[in-house]
Specification:
The chain is α/β, with parallel strands linked by helices. It has helices at about 25-30, 45-50, 75-90, 105-110, 120-130, 150-165, 185-195, 210-220, 235-245, 255-275, 280-290, 300-305, 310-325, and strands spanning about 1-5, 5-10, 15, 40, 45, 70-75, 95-100, 135-140, 170-175, 200-205, 225-230. Helices cover about 45% and strands about 15% of the residues. The N and C termini lie far apart (about 40 Å).
Length: about 325
């Protein structure tokens, strides 16, 4: 049984935090396919401390999605810790501190991946958060700010401090902050961390787009589990596929078009509850683009999804391409 602090997981395939994607609908769909722990999209610490902002439903977790982790980022260790305590009060089961985000506007404000160059601030943020909450605390990192020797030294200082200070788990993405999402993820550094600290609960991330690759990366690096990010968008089957291979079973048959339609409609209707009308259709568009990858008429389906604006027309489109077409 894999554990992150007090949280027990029945498999090692977690849905990573994805800003603008991993809200309640995506999280709950992932759970239906076997994902044992999901994360919110990364949330700014200061916003969570604003009395009016925190009332928004997007900051809340629901009873049917536990365990669920709140991922937060900031710059000031004290504010980060206060934010963590706020999310714990809201019912989140774990806090994940993001020191990995490579988005330029985040870096300009000295948050996220910018802190990969500041091991002391990272350490203080963890220690303050550890004192502020009574739940597991995880940290999300990259393999360095860039590929310089100084960045490598900073990376290992962060790792050494985290292990010494008792972090419950680390998630490491196999690219530098400077790389953003370009090039291939380097899992060799992740493997180095696991080799140096075999007792550390370690999750790898980067270029996990299908179940066979996920199992291969786990075998190559001996990580305890993986954080599946882009590979899970419009593809919750990646969790059930990975579980099957992990249990020594054959890779399941791809979902039929009607099965895909069922999940798409479930996902959209949950979005529609929070974002009714055209807002929900627009928000679902980025998911439908990824769902469309499996369709034999992928390009035509994708173009139709990009054009649709009205809720009923979206439902009709799914029916046309996925049920009548089948």
């Amino acid at each position: 049984m894999l554990k992150i602090g007090s949280i027990q997981l029945n498999n090692p395939f977690l849905q990573a935090a994805l800003s603008g994607y991993t809200d309640y609908p995506m999280r709950i769909i992932a759970r239906r396919f076997g994902c044992p722990l999901t994360f919110t999209g990364v949330m700014l610490d200061r916003i969570s401390l604003h009395p009016k902002a925190i009332k928004q439903t997007k900051f809340h977790c629901l009873e049917d999605e536990h365990p669920v982790a709140a991922q937060i980022f900031g710059h000031d260790p004290e504010i980060i810790a206060q934010s963590a305590a706020q999310f714990r009060r809201l019912g989140y089961d774990m806090i994940d501190l993001n020191f990995a985000c490579p988005v330029p506007k985040v870096l300009r404000r000295e948050r996220g991946g910018w802190l990969m160059r500041k091991p002391d601030i990272v350490q203080q943020a963890f220690l303050r958060t550890r004192e502020a909450v009574d739940c597991p605390v995880m940290m999300k990192l990259r393999i360095g700010f860039d590929h310089s020797e100084a960045a490598r030294e900073d990376f290992w200082r962060i790792i050494d401090n985290a292990v010494a200070d008792g972090v419950d788990a680390l998630g490491i993405h196999g690219r530098t902050v400077e790389q953003k999402y370009k090039g291939k993820a380097d899992w060799s550094v992740i493997a180095e961390v696991k080799k140096k600290y075999p007792k550390l609960t370690l999750f790898g991330s980067g270029d996990l787009m299908d179940a066979p690759t996920i199992i291969q990366r786990m075998q190559e690096t001996s990580v305890d589990g993986v954080l599946i990010a882009r590979g899970a968008i419009g593809n919750p089957w990646i969790f059930s596929d990975s579980i099957a291979l992990w249990e020594g079973k054959s890779l399941p048959q791809p979902p039929s078009l009607p099965e895909q339609a069922d999940i798409m409609l479930q996902h959209y209707e949950m979005i529609n509850q929070e974002r009714p009308g055209r807002r929900g259709v627009s928000f679902f568009r980025k998911f439908s683009a990824r769902f469309a990858h499996r369709h034999p008429e992928r390009k035509k389906v994708l173009l139709d999804f990009m054009r649709v604006k009205e809720p009923q027309k979206l439902r009709d489109l799914i029916n046309q391409w996925y049920i009548q077409y089948a």
